């Protein structure tokens, strides 16, 4: 692959400690944060969400889990107006790619199925720069970031996150595991963009599903739709988001 400059991203046409267990109270708190967030800028009647995942070698189990769960985002918004998703991932040495936008679960599944995790360092800044470019050209309601590490200068990430805040693009940062540096960075990125942060345990498919559904509902229908979700028995993910979104 041709080397790219710092902060650039490739676009493809198609495609130590035991981990923590996220409690129901933490998920409830996360969703409650999201309920307090400003109404997202909608494009027509559909929401739009950038789904960014760390695809370095340590992430293979979580990638497989996300692949199995991604359709739940589309299912959660069927009655609201729909959702367009763009997949972004980084892996290997200086490889960071973005897919086309897709509005169905089958399309996103095809994109994710063709990706294999490879060793390498994190490239979160490239993801943020790409999101800034997308949000400057079209309404983007949410950026979901799923990962377990952060190996970059936080000040560099924070600068771009501040620019995303000006574009009203919140970051929903989901951390797998206990890495302290990642936790600090993910919390700060969420805070700067008026988004939300939450951990989930290794293999905790139900936790991640609830969180992804909550963000999808927010992106497609805003706080009102998320509040409706939070009132239901399965709405703990929504309640956790709403508590953080201020």
Shape: globular
Distance between the termini: 42 Å
Helix content: 40-55%
The ordered string of helix (H) and strand (E) elements is EHEHHEEHHEHEHEHH
Instruction: Tell me the strand order in the biggest sheet.
Output: 1-4-3-2-5-6-7
Mean pLDDT: 83
Number of E-type strands: 7
Largest sheet: 7 strands, mixed
Which regions are unreliable across 5 or more consecutive residues at pLDDT < 50?
1-8, 12-21
Sheet-strand content, in percent, reads: 15-25%
**Radius of gyration computed on alpha carbons:** 16 Å
The helix/strand class is alpha/beta
Number of helices: 9
State the main characteristics.
alpha/beta; 246 residues; 18% strand; 7-stranded mixed sheet; disordered N terminus; 44% helix
Topology, element by element:
Blueprint: E1 10-11, H1 24-34, E2 47-54, H2 60-69, H3 71-76, E3 83-91, E4 95-102, H4 105-113, H5 124-137, E5 142-147, H6 154-166, E6 171-176, H7 180-192, E7 196-200, H8 205-230, H9 236-242
Parallel strand pairs: 1-4, 2-3, 2-5, 5-6, 6-7
Antiparallel strand pairs: 3-4
Helix pairs in contact: 1-8, 1-9, 5-6, 6-7, 8-9
């Amino acid at each position: 692959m041709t080397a790219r400059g710092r902060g650039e991203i490739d676009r493809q046409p198609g495609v130590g400690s035991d981990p923590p267990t996220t409690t129901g109270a933490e998920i409830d708190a996360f969703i409650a944060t999201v309920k307090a967030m400003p109404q997202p800028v909608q494009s027509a009647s559909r929401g739009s969400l950038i789904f960014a995942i760390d695809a370095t070698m340590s992430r293979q189990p979580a990638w497989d889990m996300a692949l199995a769960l991604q359709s739940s985002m589309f299912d959660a918004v069927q009655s609201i107006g729909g959702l367009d998703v763009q997949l972004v991932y980084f892996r290997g040495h200086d490889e960071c790619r973005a897919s086309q936008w897709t509005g169905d679960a089958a399309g996103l599944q095809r994109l994710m199925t063709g990706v294999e995790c490879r060793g390498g360092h994190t490239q979160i800044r490239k993801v943020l720069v790409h999101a800034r470019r997308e949000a400057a050209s079209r309404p983007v309601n949410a950026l979901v970031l799923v990962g377990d590490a952060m190996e970059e200068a936080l000040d560099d990430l924070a600068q771009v996150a501040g620019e995303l805040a000006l574009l009203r693009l919140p970051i929903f940062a989901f951390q797998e595991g206990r890495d302290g540096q990642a936790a600090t960075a993910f919390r700060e990125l969420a805070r700067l963009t008026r988004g939300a942060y939450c951990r989930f345990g290794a293999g905790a498919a139900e936790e991640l599903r609830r969180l992804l559904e909550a963000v999808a509902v927010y992106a497609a229908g805003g706080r009102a739709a998320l509040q409706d979700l939070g009132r239901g028995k399965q709405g703990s993910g929504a309640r956790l988001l709403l508590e953080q979104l201020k």
